[in-house]
Amino acid sequence: MGGTGARIAGLALAWLAGVAAHLQERSLWPAAMYAGLAIVGLVTLLLPRVSRRARRHAHALAFPLLFAASAACGFGASGLRAALRMADTLDPALENRDLVVVGVVSSLPQRGPTGLRFRFDVESAHDASGPVQVPPQVALGWYAGSHEDAALAGPEQELRAGQRWRWTVRLRRPHGNVNPASYDWELSLLEQGVRATGYVRDAPAERLAEAAGDPIDRLRQRVRDAIEATVPDRRVAGVLAALCIGDQGAIEREDWDLFRNTGTAHLMAISGLHVTMLAWAAGLVIAGLWRRSAPATLWLPAPLAGRLGGLFTALAYALFSGWGVPSQRTVWMLATVTVLRVLGLRWPWLIVLLMAAVVVTMLDPWALLQAGFWLSFMAVGLLMASSPADDRTHEPPPGTDPASATRWHRLARGAWRQVRHDLRTQAIATLGLTPLTLVFFHQVSLVGFAANVVAIPLVTLVVTPLALLGTLIVPLWTVGAIVVRGLMAMLSALAGLPAAVWTAPEAPAWAQLAGLLGAMLIVLPIPWRVRALGAVLVVPLLWPGRSLPPPGTFELIALDVGQGTSVLVRTHAHLLVYDTGPQYARDNDAGQRILVPVLRARGEARVDRLVLSHRDADHTGGARSLIAAYPVDALLTSLEEEHPLLALGPPPERCVAGQSWTWDGVRFDVLHPKYDGYDVARKSNALSCVVRVTGSNGSALLTGDIERGQEAELVASLGTALRSDVLIVPHHGSRTSSTPAFIDAVRPTVAVFQAGYLSRFRHPAPDVVARYVERGIETVTSPACGAWHRPAVHDGEPACERERVQRYWHHTMR
User: Which of 542-551, 692-701, 767-776 has the lowest mean pLDDT?
Assistant: First the structure.
């Protein structure tokens, strides 16, 4: 292969570089420009093959020119795909308006404590004035109870995939919370082709047809219903449904935490491992049966029949399991390898991987930004690169006569050889993927090796086959449930061990690259001296340095939690968390989704003081998850003594005006409520803990949900002593607060409004924002800014996270 292999690898890398460059764009070009660039690149690549004259001159500029042409193709093709998909985004004029839509439920509805979530293929839509154009696929919720967008009628319990409905809905453009090291929800929706989200309104819902849409979706729905009817334990049924039909939403949140902490989360979804294992097993069976038919082997060789059969089995499984993005990537990878084998191309493993990556990114350019893509390719590459030659042969040990060995001895040797191979494979995957896991998730399971040694064969060879065969022989689901219970008991025991999870803060780019290189050196079959160098390179990723505020200063991060409040105040050696954001649903809150990942990425080991300003759920909703994940040394709050949250953390201390403490030269003062305020029957907003932070680099006022009366009390008692550089605006910018007298007393440089995008509360109120603007105060709203970060250093400029990470798929508010 020599020079030809190098050229192929170079062109593949150029394509991937072009795709990667496109993914850095902050805004898109017109679609025609991308199409033109891709065409020019393609013509340049093909010119030497169709033109004799071009071939004669190709040797002079061949490689640089072809490299640039391949990169142009990657950039242009991915840009064109993005432009076409972004064109389907909902018209802003239709946001938050009542629309009547007709369409088909195109995914398995995910049941939660407050309702249902599902995807909906829209066939037609209209408002009061007539037909309107909406995206062809939207993500909807049908909520009840305490959910912010609850419909009075509540969700339809008989909602099923494949049904056609007419609903009144409210839609909005995809808009997620943007925080440091947070999950990019808007990118995920773009990759899935969902260009609007919304919820069902109170208007009557009409079911138009019971069986419509994709028959595979209807089949998956029947299978899920059958699993739930057969296995009464909802947790176990959720795991079986996830492995059989790809219904990951059926797994409980606590179980996902268990799987993540034991490094087995990759096994509980229809991942590349499951699809590949099924394709491999099917290929062996098909090839074996094919050899038994002489006419069949004359028509098609058995090995080729096995490969093609395995590929089609993988495709069928991926479709049956919901055609999720990870399954799609695996099918394209297998298809690439199969096509190369069919064509008789015996390329080196590295080139095969590169070509598979080209095919995957051709169909899904956003895969380059997904952890699953890199973990899958890295795992395969490490295993291929680290396999020594003698490990791929199975010769008997020296001095052994194969002819004289008994059958049982041969079986024992084969079994031991397989065990050694499996342990070695797991060790390579664990060591090699640890740096990549830290880069993406800032944590790695220290019990993951032991957990996976048992879980991988159990899930792939026992549970998954039982889950699939249960669609034909129902009692096998009961057997699978018994195995799942035993597995989860083992994982729970491992997760309960001390220091089961290692966490590390986000490392700089150079440390991430050094760690990845070090991991490769450790597992490659090379001299131990070089491997020792790999261990040294990994250290900066495992223990990266942290940039802490100098003594006497503090940094402040107003997190983007939607309709709610959460603020981090970090001094040189201490951390204050002021409120924990909302509870989005009974199994989903800002603590688990935002606070804990942000603290983990920042390398925080504990919370020195948690302030829960008052009992409203949009301020305390994430507290349970935070307390479960992090040690909290002190709790300051106005919650009533019988509040259930107080039983979870340290002994609470009631916040009272006059309290103060100093951390690392930074002073914290509690300004409200007064001690006798607790004896007066008032709503919870009036008891909000107000905290003022003062350091050498400025001051900040954290106000909770105080209203006019409390603002007047503060102004009367403190006057100009309220002066602060940063104001977390009271009550999210509600008209109940931000009186002119209060604003004039505080005189902030920056006013931060923490509120939700298109919230039903309509915070912040336009006239309240105008009140700050007309006084020359800079205003920041979390929907437009994302998390707002004020650094500790004097010359550091405050920054909006949404502006810092802006890409073309991120929603911008003009």
Answer: 542-551
Q: Are 156 and 142 in contact (CB under 8 A)?
A: yes
Cβ neighbours of residue 176 closer than 8 Å, sequence gap 6 or more: 183, 184, 185, 186
* 3-class secondary structure per residue, 577-630: EECCCCEEECCEEHHHHHHHHHHHHCCCCCECEEEECCCCHHHHCCHHHHHHHC
Q: Which two tokens stand for residue 480?
A: 């699978």
In terms of Cβ atoms closer than 10 Å to its own Cβ (0-12, 13-18, 19+), residue 755 is buried
CB-CB contact of 659 with 637 (8 Å): no
Alpha helices in 150-251 (DSSP H): 185-192, 215-230, 234-245
> Which 3 state secondary structure label does DSSP give 432?
helix
Give the Å distances, CA to CA, from 781 to 184, 247, 494, 559, 728. Answer: 19, 36, 43, 11, 10
State residue 395's pLDDT score: 44
Cβ atoms of 5 and 44 closer than 8 Å? no
pLDDT level of residue 392 (50, 70, 90 thresholds) = very low
Q: CA of 464: how far to CAs of 1, 68, 217, 418, 525, in Å? A: 40, 45, 20, 21, 33
Return d(Cα 693, Cα 691) in angstroms, integer.
7
With cut-offs at 50, 70 and 90, classify the pLDDT of residue 335.
confident
Residues in the chain: 814
Nearest in space to 75 (alpha carbons), one of 15, 122, 7: 15
pLDDT of 394: 43
pTM: 0.89
Residue 122 pLDDT level (bands cut at 50, 70, 90): very high
Q: Which residue has the higher pLDDT, 425 or 470?
A: 470
Q: 373-377 long-range contacts, Cβ below 8 Å, gap at least 24?
A: 373/329, 374/436, 374/440, 375/266, 375/433, 375/436, 375/437, 375/440, 376/271, 376/272, 376/326, 376/329, 376/330, 376/333, 377/353
Report which of 271, 269, 155, 161 is spatially closest to residue 225, judged by C-alpha positions.
161
- The mean pLDDT value for 787-796 works out to 85
Q: CA–CA distance from 722 to each of 556, 641, 710, 717, 775 (Å)?
A: 18, 30, 13, 10, 17
Three-state SS sequence of 9-64: HHHHHHHHHHHHHHCCCCCCCCHHHHHHHHHHHHHHHHHHHHCHHHHHHHHHHHHH
Q: Tell me the pairing of strands 206-209 and 443-445.
A: unpaired
Distance of alpha carbon 306 from alpha carbon 296, whole angstroms: 12
Q: Is residue 41 within 8 Å of 76, Cβ to Cβ?
A: yes
Question: CA nearest 118: which of 276, 279, 282, 322?
Answer: 322
Residue 397: the pLDDT is 44
Q: Which range is most confident: 212-216, 327-331, 612-616?
A: 612-616
Mean pLDDT of 72-78: 97
Name the residue among 384, 508, 376, 379 with its Cα closest to residue 432. Answer: 379
Q: CB–CB of 122/106 below 8 Å? A: no
The DSSP H or E segment spanning 455 is helix 448-458
Q: Are 790 and 555 in contact (CB under 8 A)?
A: yes
Find where tokens 């020359």 sit: 776
Q: Is the pLDDT of residue 398 over 60?
A: no
> pLDDT digit string (tens) for 594-645?
999 999 999 999 999 999 999 999 999 999 999 999 999 999 999 998 999 9
Which 3 state secondary structure label does DSSP give 655? coil
The mean of the pLDDT values for the chain is 88
- The distance in angstroms from the start CA to the end CA of the chain is 54
